[in-house]
Write a structure and sequence with these properties.
The chain has 192 residues and is α+β, with helices and mostly antiparallel strands. It folds into 2 domains: 2-69, 434 Repressor (Amino-terminal Domain), CATH 1.10.260; 83-187, Jelly Rolls (Sandwich). 31% of the residues lie in helices and 27% in strands. It contains 6 helices and 9 strands. It has helices spanning 2-21, 26-33, 37-45, 52-62, 66-69, 181-187; strands at residues 83-85, 90-94, 105-111, 129-136, 138-143, 146-151, 155-159, 164-168, 173-179. Strands 1-2-3-9-4-7 form a 6-stranded antiparallel sheet. It has a 3-stranded antiparallel sheet with strand order 6-5-8, with no helix packed on it. Helix 2 packs across helix 3 and helix 2 packs across helix 4. The longest helix has 20 residues, at 2-21. It is elongated and about 65 Å long. The model has no long low-confidence stretch (mean pLDDT 84).
Length: 192
């Protein structure tokens, strides 16, 4: 029973917090979710039970989901720890715990080795598109027969059906990358 009460209170706090973060009054949110301001006030303060249809309407008006409103408040490990792949000269920090919309994953990567030689199996090909921006250093992008140098402050986006590989050029480089499911599997290899 205590867990249900805690979850109920957490949802109410999140509703109020999201409303205030948007700068909305009770009247503003009430109009968006088709409830009266007094009903919404009683929901936020715990003086009224929240029905599922009200919760769905409130979540939609706040631009969130039921899952996000009811997400666990457990003290997860909030520190993002690097995953090292010494064989490929890459250290990755996963910036999304779970794939986001459309299965995308965001990662910061430190690349220390040059790209593999052309024609090797490390030249990846997979469905979709990859995107990265260089935070520091210079990245050498092998894309088919082309060699492209992408410098700090620049970004690259390309079809991943073209054989491709990334590597550092002239010293370590750091990138922020967005990968779809296939790109994540190819570029963010699980480490032992």
């Amino acid at each position: 029973m205590k867990q249900e009460e805690d979850l109920d209170q957490l949802i109410r706090q999140r509703i109020r917090g999201l409303r205030l973060a948007r700068g909305w009054s009770l009247d503003d949110l009430a109009a968006r979710c088709y409830l009266s301001p007094s009903t919404l006030s009683r929901i936020e303060t715990g003086h009224r039970r929240i029905s599922l249809d009200q919760l769905v309407s409130i979540a939609r008006a706040l631009g969130t989901t039921l899952d996000q409103l009811a997400e666990s408040a457990a003290d997860e490990d909030v520190v993002i720890r690097p995953r090292r792949d010494e064989a490929h000269g890459v250290t990755a920090w996963m910036l999304t715990r779970e794939p986001g919309p459309h299965g995308v994953t965001v990662a910061k990567m430190r690349i220390t080795k040059p790209p593999p030689p052309r024609g090797t199996e490390e030249m990846g090909v997979h469905p979709g598109r990859d995107w990265f921006t260089v935070l520091s250093g210079t990245v050498m992008l092998l894309l088919g027969e082309r060699t492209i140098l992408v410098e700090a402050g620049q970004a690259a986006e390309f079809s991943t059906m073209v054989p491709h590989a990334l590597g550092a050029h002239g010293g370590p480089a750091e990138i922020l990358a967005i990968f779809d499911h296939d790109g994540q599997r190819t570029h963010l290899r699980p480490t032992a």
